[in-house]
Amino acid sequence: QQQVKQSPQSLIVQKGGISIINCAYENTAFDYFPWYQQFPGKGPALLIAIRPDVSEKKEGRFTISFNKSAKQFSLHIMDSQPGDSATYFCAARPGFQKLVFGTGTRLLVSP
Amino acid sequence: EAQVTQNPRYLITVTGKKLTVTCSQNMNHEYMSWYRQDPGLGLRQIYYSMNVEVTDKGDVPEGYKVSRKEKRNFPLILESPSPNQTSLYFCASKRNTGELFFGEGSRLTVL
């Protein structure tokens, strides 16, 4: 089970609100969970990543929450800003093998 | 400046006309990979290369070829493009940390 299921497909949040994107996986061998951010016309870029030995990782306004027992992880964007409008991909990887990407979430933060 | 450079960025072609999308990285990374991005399907790996002269199929290799004669270059070849290969293509190289570093993408339309 190499899939990573991502939801929602699209999300509209008001400026200052909290954006939440969820991902779920089946493969218990996954041990690295990054989030990539992609602006229009650009390639994806690593935003934040977590390993399953911690339940939360925070970098500025971006937080990954990880629930190992539920096999779910989520990205929270606090105080969302129009500049956060982008497509977000979750991903997972078993060991040093290839990354498996979610289907992406298009986030629009309205002014 | 560290970068992955793809060319062309935009291309419209016709069915059956061979084309090559070039990819070059200046970071001396051993691992390189090609992805295609389609709405609702996320990023899917086409081919990857662990090092010079070492390439392997990803999840969607049909209709594509690659070569890795030099560490910095990893071209993607479409011998006989078809309309279902209309997509946004990304080349990526991998840092020692495991982070994928993407190019800016090549949008291909096959008529």
Question: Notable features of this structure?
Answer:
heterodimer, A: 111 residues, mainly beta, six-stranded mixed sheet, 11 strands, 58% strand, globular, B: 111 residues, seven-stranded mixed sheet, four-stranded antiparallel sheet
Q: What's the overall geometry of chain B?
A: globular
Count of DSSP-assigned helices of chain B: 0
Extract low-pLDDT stretches of chain A: none
Number of helices of chain A: 0
Q: Averaged pLDDT of chain B, please?
A: 95
Topology:
The complex is a heterodimer of chains A (111) and B (111).
Chain A: E1 4-7, E2 10-14, E3 19-25, E4 30-38, E5 45-50, E6 56-59, E7 62-67, E8 72-77, E9 86-94, E10 100-101, E11 105-110
Parallel strand pairs in A: 2-11
Antiparallel strand pairs in A: 1-3, 3-8, 4-5, 4-9, 6-7, 7-8, 9-10, 9-11
Chain B: E1 4-7, E2 10-13, E3 19-25, E4 32-38, E5 42-51, E6 54-57, E7 65-66, E8 76-78, E9 87-94, E10 100-102, E11 106-110
Overall description:
The complex is a heterodimer of chains A (about 110) and B (about 110). Chain A has about 110 residues and is mainly beta. Chain A has no helices and eleven strands. In chain A, strands 2, 4, 5, 9, 10 and 11 form a six-stranded mixed sheet that branches. In chain A, a hairpin with a 5-residue loop joins strand 9 and strand 10. Chain A is globular and about 40 Å long. Chain B has about 110 residues and is mostly beta strands. Chain B is about 0% helix and about 50% strand. In chain B, strands 2, 4, 5, 6, 9, 10 and 11 form a seven-stranded mixed sheet that branches. In chain B, strands 1-3-8-7 form a four-stranded antiparallel sheet, with no helix packed on it. Chain B is globular and about 40 Å long. Classes of the chains: A mainly beta (about 110), B mainly beta (about 110). At the A-B interface, strand 4 and strand 5 of A face strand 5 of B.
